[in-house]
Amino acid sequence: MGRSHGKRSNTRDKFAKPFRRHGMPLPCKYLATYRVGEYVDVVADSAIHKGMPHKFYHGRTGRVFDVTPRSVGVEVNKEVNGRIMVKRIHVRTEHVRPSRCQQAFKEMVRARDAARRAARAAGEPKLIHEKRQPAGPLPAHIVEAGTGGLVHLEPKPYEFIC
Fold first, then answer.
1. Segment (H or E) for 89
2. At 55, which CATH number?
């Protein structure tokens, strides 16, 4: 006999909650505010069956396009036959959390703007390095020999035994 391929098939581990995190969601899940254009992560909460997204969208990041009293409309990219389509899904707020995908970018922009303001206040014309720079080599330093001094290591000479 064949097996079924229902909406929640193969989700035993995917929808499982972490250790000691079982049960209903906390009130902060319901008090969160989502605005159109924000990035959110779609993470299905297995304790809430209403408004649960399909298992494909679990763990996906999308952009909010619609906000209703109890749900959020999210645009998520999905690959279909080799092309990427924008799928629009409505998900209850229990199955959504704010995404941190732009956190590093926003911190970099804040730091850059603060540096610009400081340079402008100091009278400097413009910052030279506004783009992110890779981490350079470590600065030079002197290696101290221990109390026993340096030890010269070399391999033992080869001896032919016949």
1. strand 83-92
2. 2.30.30.70
